[in-house]
């Protein structure tokens, strides 16, 4: 399974992911980049008279709850060890093009969403493939594969691996038994998930901003205290990002990497963190109250900005300024990586309290990921099996599986779920390229009808008027 996983997340897939982002950025005349400030402003807009289940903000928070996870703490430190500190630059570069990818897939999700049997919105790449492709056989086949991969991934990368991160964090910092953590986790999941997307959206809209603020404050304290080392750290990050030959840097200690190594690990961990191109976040976008597909596309693309360009950047700068990168673990003889490296970096300022700070952040990030991925898995299962009893059974089973994740060793699950996560991207990227004309039409129409006027202070509401809806 590890070999399959290495192939799925290998250079070809990473080139496909970033290449699609580059193509869409050019195809859309760089509007996702140019309209990023506008998109951030749109996050708190209210369209209560528009079709949808939750507000644009709650939709974004649901998507962020699934993407802002252990990758922001563990993934960044791992990338900086395996790819050198320069990997952080390539995470940012991949995220820049990921803005266009996330915008495009969210636009298609809203454009082709449907109302299910209980009056909720159902949408995502599978619906765009089924209803957007002229060749219905190909569209339906790709849609079925995407939905199947998403359901499988939801139990692994979206549940058990996150639950395991939570129990490991609390066992290391507080000495809590994984069984106790597992029971508490199941109870919390049932309390939120049994009530569906409105409950997930409401809880995510509280947890995600709170955990982001907590982590932001803690990280900024470390960066400010270690400010004297920051300029050298940043210079080393950019130097190693573009070094043609393998080099070692002061900030990296024993870490040696070339540009190609930095590029590989930076892009891989960046995509893994913000999920641009995987097709997961658009499922949450489809539930939003919005009067135009492009409006929610802009709102949801900010998730990539906040996830990788802000939160991942904070972790990277904490590590770079702490002087801990390249520290050798005497027990293994290898460079300290993952959560342990992040704890070491925070301990440069907070001392023993660092393990509690990182553990709390990890637990909040991971729990929010469980909530967001349950919704992704549920909507994907709903596409395959429309029976409501099956859907409710999935919610209960998903909650119970968290106990398994909290109490078991999961190396195989990590590899399997990582593979399923990567396989989701293949039909989704094909969909984005196939329907690029639809994305461009929505983008340019919205730019003309709304963006230019709203930038001038007008409040434009397209409810009931736009053909895209």
Question: Which terms would index this structure?
Answer:
membrane, 469 residues, mainly alpha, 73% helix, Hydantoin permease, cell membrane, 4 strands, amino acid:sodium symporter activity, two-stranded antiparallel ribbon
Characterization of this structure:
- The protein is mostly helical.
- The protein has one domain: Hydantoin permease.
- The strands form 2 sheets. A two-stranded antiparallel ribbon has the order 1-2. The chain has a two-stranded antiparallel ribbon with strand order 3-4.
- The model has no long low-confidence stretch (mean pLDDT 84).
The termini sit apart by 42 Å
CATH topology-level name: Hydantoin permease
Number of strands: 4
Q: Can you write the helix and strand succession as a string? A: HHHHHHHEEHHHHHEEHHHHHHHH
The biggest beta sheet, please?
2 strands, antiparallel
In the CATH scheme, the class would be Mainly Alpha
Keywords: Cell membrane, Membrane, Symport, Transmembrane, Transmembrane helix, Transport
Family: Belongs to the alanine or glycine:cation symporter (AGCS) (TC 2.A.25) family.
Subcellular location: Cell membrane
Membrane topology: Multi-pass membrane protein
